[in-house]
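The step that takes the researchers longest sounds almost clerical: writing a folded protein down as plain text. The outcome of that step, for a single protein, is printed below.
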Amino acid sequence: MSTSDRILLFLHIGFAIFTLGPLTAATMSTPRYIRKRNVVVVRYLHRTTQIYGIGTLGIFLIGLGLAKGDLAEVWLTVSMTLFVVALVLLLIVERDQRKAVHLLEVAAAEAVPAPVAARPAATEKAGEAKEGGVEAEGGAAEAGAPAAGATAEPAAATGEIAQVERGRLAAMSGVVALIWLVILVLMVWNG
């Protein structure tokens, strides 16, 4: 192995370590932060996926340089095909992260805080009714209940934000991680 081949191999391994690790961590932790409705972290993970996803192209290009046109090897063809499949899945992951960020931002904008003055007044009335020794008809039970004409809670309060994206992200990021492992095994076994 020549010196230039060794340099390419070190670059190939370095790119793999320093791009695939953070990329996999970002994609696999995104569903957790969608569930926690932390739009700042989900936005950061989306940006991390974009940057390191582009960085993975370096792995592919340096790997092509190492192959030196000897693509007749089955394991190289399988590895490159799996890599392309993983990149396509990463595009879907990136799209779902972008959509989840948008849905979380919309849900946060739609969340309307409850009036502060209305709650203590209702609680005081319920307390006064109890102090008089006579429970007001439905006083304590209705004090904390919403009025009959009140609208339903926004989606942010019910936890139904980006469930489809969250599930797809969990599945796709797991498949991508398995693809990286298969490629690693092929490289170590045949390299």
